[in-house]
Amino acid sequence: MTAWLEVLGVSAKLGLTSFGGPAAHLGYFHEEYINRRRWLDERSYADLVALCQFLPGPASSQVGIGIGMLRAGWLGGIAAWLGFTLPSVILLVLFALLMKGMNLAAAGWIHGLKMVAVAIVAQAVLSMGQKLAPDRARMTLVVLAAAAALFWQTPYSQVLIIAAAGGAGLWLYRHTADERPAAYSIRISRWAGACCLGIFLLLLVVLPLLRSSWASGSLALFDSMYRSGSLVFGGGHVVLPLLEREVVPTGWVSENDFLAGYGVTQAIPGPLFTFAAYLGAVFGGIQGTVVATIGIFLPAFLLVAGALPFWNSLRSSPRVQGALLGINAAVVGLLLAALYDPLWTTTVRGAGDFALAAGLFVLLVFWKLPPWLVVLAGAAGGLLL
Q1: Mapping DSSP to helix (H, G, I), strand (E, B) and coil, where does residue 327 land?
Q2: Which of 10, 54, 199, 275 has its CA 20 to 30 A from that of 229?
Q3: What is the per-residue DSSP string for 44-87?
Q4: Whole-angstrom Cα distance, residue 336 to residue 118?
Q5: Buried b vs exposed e over 126-144: b needs ≥16 C-beta within 10 Å?
Q6: Where this protein primarily resides, as one coarse class (predicted)?
């Protein structure tokens, strides 16, 4: 079998069965790619995961893209992304079309899905806060970032908050460094990597300029999704505030539809970034789906291909490690702000809503039920309320 077709088949299997979010996806990848197929050794897999945690974007998708590239070159990277992404894209588009055709926004079970979103983001804030802000300096950065995000809401505020936190981490942790990591072997040339990074930066600068001078809904959607996919550190949940600020104030997607779609995204396999496909479908049907999906995942592809050749030297720098500690704390703060606004302020309207959200949180965190079961419980609870 052609190598890229093999990658496509294996990644499609993972796209149909990988429930549970980015951390669970990495476990599925390890079992399939490392234990069963031995496409990489343990150390190489750990190095690749470390790189993708360092980069902005959907970490699990980036790990899959990287494995596909190592296995079958550029076509392998594309095949790995398609296989892992398409199943959830198709499911979310079907849900978006159902929402449009049947006007379900006011249904009780849709309100229950919003409660699921509250519980899942609260769980993400708790778990990420424990891992990424374990000391008082980083917890202070969390609170400052959350406050800044709530009081200062502009198109560029989150970028500047992340940059400021990176500068703070650079100073606070300038003498902190892990052991020098082992060297990582990669077949992509530095020239090709530099070209990918150049394209990534060029699009980040040029797309907003084109959008301001050329009235096109598809171009505006692509720019919004590309920018969101370029600036997300910390996993799929963190894209929520970025996407909300791009699509709700503009009127592309209503607050009800946005939160309902986010709740459903938790119940299906595959990457959380496919939430963008749902938003694109609500905004512009199938064309919107294609534009939004490519827009939000393209930065991930360019960054993985661009960073792999330089990773060995980059990750050995104490300065980079320190900046990343500050950035990760700011990520938790941005997610905390999103938990309050828009999730809490627009969703929790009384004692019943609070009780349902708290119950779903307990099911997730303490009973450790799979997300799809919690989604069903949320929908049933919304119907009862």
Answers
A1: helix
A2: 10
A3: HHHHHHHHHHHSSS-HHHHHHHHHHHHHHHHHHHHHHHHHHHHH
A4: 11
A5: ebbbeebbeeeebbebbeb
A6: membrane
Contact 150, 337 (CB under 8 A): yes
Contact 382, 356 (CB under 8 A): yes
Q: What was the pLDDT predicted at 196? A: 96
Residue type, 196: C
> Cα(52)–Cα(50) distance, rounded to whole angstroms?
6
Of the candidates 246, 244, 270, 273, the residue with the CA atom closest to the CA atom of residue 346: 244
What pLDDT, in 10s, does the model give residues 45-65? 867 876 787 788 888 899 899
> What SS3 state is found at 322?
helix
Question: 97: how many CB neighbours lie within 10 A of its CB?
Answer: 15
- pLDDT given at position 298: 97
- Rounded to whole angstroms, the Cα distance separating 169 from 326 reads 4
Residue 194: its pLDDT value, please?
95
How far apart are the C-alpha atoms of 329 and 151, rounded to whole Å? 18
Peptide bond before residue 271 is cis, with ω within 30 degrees of 0 = no
Report phi then psi at 178, rounded to 5.
-80, 175
Q: Is-contact 255 346, C-beta < 8 A?
A: yes
Q: Which pLDDT score is estimated for 180? A: 57
| ∠ CA 363-366-371, rounded to 5° | 40
Dist. CA 273–CA 84, nearest whole Å: 11
Q: Report the helix count and the strand count for the chain, using DSSP H and E.
A: 17, 0
Query: Residue 217 and residue 333: Cα distance in Å, rounded?
Result: 31
pLDDT of residue 176: 66
Q: State the pLDDT at residue 161.
A: 87
The residues of the chain scoring below 50 in pLDDT are none
**164 to 108, 136, 167, 314, 327: CA distances (angstroms):** 42, 17, 5, 20, 8
pLDDT at res. 177 = 56
Q: Cβ distance 267 to 370 under 8 Å?
A: no
Query: pLDDT tens digits for 304-348?
Result: 999 888 876 776 677 877 887 888 888 788 878 878 887 788 788
**What integer pLDDT is reported at residue 20 of this predicted model?**
61
The CA-atom distances, in angstroms, between 206 and each of 119, 202, 211, 212, 292 are 38, 6, 9, 10, 17
| pLDDT of the residue at 179 | 54
